[in-house]
Amino acid sequence: MTMKRRKIVVAGGFCLSFFLGTLMNLLFIPGFDHHQSHRGRVHRFYQEQQLLADGRQLQISDPVAAEAVEGYTEPTSSSLQQNDLQQQIRERYEEVLRYRERQASWSGTGNPVRPLERRRLMDLAQRNSYESHKGTEKSSNRYAYSQHLSPLASLYLRSQMEFDVIPGTRNGTQFLGCNSIDNVTNVQYLGSGYTKAVYKAALNDTLSVALKSVDFGGHDMENCVKKYGSTEDCYRLASFKIVKEMTLMERLQHPNILKLYGYCYQDSNDIRDTVTAITELGSPLEMIQLLQTSWEERFRICLSLVRLLHYLAHSPLGSVTLLDFRPRQFVLVGGELKVTDLDDASAEEAVCSAAADCGMEFPARNFTLSCHRGRCMGINEKRNLYNAYRFFFTYLLPHSAPPVLRPLLDEIVNATGELAWGVDDTLIHLEKVFHLYSKGLYLQNNSQLHRAEYKRVPNAAIAGENYRCWPSYQHEGCLLSVFGVREAIAVCESHAQCRAFVMTNQTTWTGHQLAFFKTGSASLSPAPGGVAYVRVSG
Ligand SMILES: Nc1ncnc2c1ncn2[C@@H]1O[C@H](COP(=O)(O)OP(=O)(O)OP(=O)(O)O)[C@@H](O)[C@H]1O
To answer: Does any domain span residue 204?
Structure first.
């Protein structure tokens, strides 16, 4: 067989693309029998075509890929099911590549290429290629199996793993790899879904992170193995969900998208290179719990969500929809809503030839969007918005809102429920509510109604004399958010038990002050920062 040297010219691009390429190569080398490794080479050739499309500057001479092109004959499969599984793997691989390509053509405000790191990778790649050709591979447990791989695969494998130990920072955050999670402590199971299991872990006893990996005992793996019989291939298929999620976390940078801190590839459960994503830690969203919190906190969730949807509608990847929009796909980080499950996100806009192709069906409502230039107009944005309405706004927005804001909130709920507004208008309206609330413009001018007088006591607190109220920020006492003293007086007068209150120096996310409401002032004592108001008449 003639050996032809091919030159691959690769220019620009991002680090993650390179490493995903690395992973992709590995994923397509499932075994070492003749048939499998031949297919692996064809896939590597295919992979090279994608690298070429990236247009980056890296030169690799690859005799193996050339051999694959010239000697390629359609592999015969022993089973149609195996083909089916490989087809699914390929489709997921291609989907990830599509997101990589979009990222490559985008030159916006994302992560800059880290030239030093890329330089080092190129050096590593060249050194490893040279060493493996000379048969001087170092053997360590971690790299032992690399000797079974082709020079190109081995080279990619090594550069991928070396990447894990290159310290780096991304957006001011340390980028974490395998060595960061080698000695984690306090590992606790957080939850799992169809495919993944998520654990909480403490790094160096300081930073708490979430570790996400394929759940070997989960439904996805179980069903796949039952159907196709190959744990390794089923793992590869499932792991693409994590790879896709990591790709999207990298590309979609927004305060309401969970941050990817890093990732690790390591052997586990007899499978090579299993992937673990290391992400920001959140707490699962409990709708029942949310319904018991203050309107201000519930409004925060809705505003976070609309800010997120606005970003997704105008994202660098195009308009992104969250196909699985259940509340469990989101977590809370310090009261802020963040999306965690991105494996069902899609930037593909439905194609159409007529409006009839642009139907959106929900349990209680159907919509038909217009078809414009072969695409359903705004379908991704509108699907997100209607889901936000049905899962979040109807429950969280109007209930116990300040009366002055109610008409505005009802308008938002109605307009999104009818899909009368796009996400831009929805955001404008929610930001307006935020402005009115945070500036105290929701307060009714009812100062003439205050009958009682209060004595102001600076630098004071009232330790006891608690009573319970709703929606208190503290379980034992009545701790509420108020815009200022005037609102606190109104609250105190609306509670039959209230005889005093203390304005604390703690603030909420809107800048409101937290005030403790009390049944009396017998336990009044000096305390810096607080100001007590004791009712003296009325
Ligand atoms: N960063 C995180 N911090 C805290 N909890 C998390 C985090 N990421 C995920 N979880 C929890 O773990 C569960 C499973 O995670 P995830 O949704 O990614 O898995 P999945 O297999 O894709 O689930 P699904 O079947 O919903 O698609 C989530 O429902 C969420 O409650």
So the answer is: yes
Are 203 and 184 a contacting pair, CB within 8 Å? yes
Using the 3D structure, point to which of 217, 247, 281 is the last residue of a domain.
281
Q: Is 193 in the pocket of ligand 1 (CB under 6 A)?
A: yes
Domain containing residue 181: 173-281
d(CA 251, CA 105): 12
How many helices (H) and strands (E) are present in the chain, helices listed first?
Answer: 16, 21
Mutate to test the pocket of ligand 1, among 195, 224, 340 (most ligand atoms within 8 A of CB): 340
Decide: 342 in ligand 1 pocket, CB within 6 A: no
pLDDT value at position 79?
62
Q: How far apart are CA 457 and CA 454, in angstroms?
A: 9
CA–CA distance, 169 with 34 (Å, rounded to integer)? 42
Give per-residue pLDDT as tens, 185-205: 889 999 999 999 999 999 887
Atom 18 in ligand 1: which residue has the minimum CA distance? Answer: 341
Q: 278-317: per-residue pLDDT in tens?
A: 999 999 988 888 888 999 999 999 999 999 999 999 999 9
Q: State which ligand 1 atom lies nearest to the alpha carbon of 329.
A: 17
Instruction: Could you list the beta-strand ranges (E) of 204-352.
Output: 207-214, 260-268, 271-280, 283-284, 321-322, 330-333, 336-339, 345-346
Residues 268 and 217 in one domain: yes
- 220 and 231 housed in the same domain: yes
Q: Buried b / exposed e across 230-268, counting CB within 10 Å, b at 16+? A: beebbbbbbbbbbbbbbbbbbbbbeebbbbbbbbbbbee
At 248, phi and psi to the nearest 5?
-70, -35
Query: Is 75 close to ligand 1, i.e. is its CB under 6 Å away?
Result: no
pLDDT at residue 99 in the model: 83
Which SS3 state, helix, strand or coil, does residue 351 take?
strand
Q: Are 244 and 343 in contact (CB under 8 A)?
A: yes
What is the total residue count of the chain? Answer: 538
Closest residue (by CA) to atom 29 of ligand 1? 328
Last residue of a domain, one of 253, 281, 309: 281
What pLDDT is attached to residue 537? Answer: 76
Number of domains in the chain: 3
Domain co-membership, 236 together with 343: no
Give the distance from CA 468 to its chain's centroid: 37
Residues 286 and 303: their CA atoms lie apart, in Å, by 17
Catalytic-labelled residue, pool 215, 324, 357, 425: 324
Q: Are 431 and 309 within one domain?
A: yes
277 lines ligand 1 (CB under 6 A): no
Average pLDDT, the chain: 76
Amino acid in position 41: R
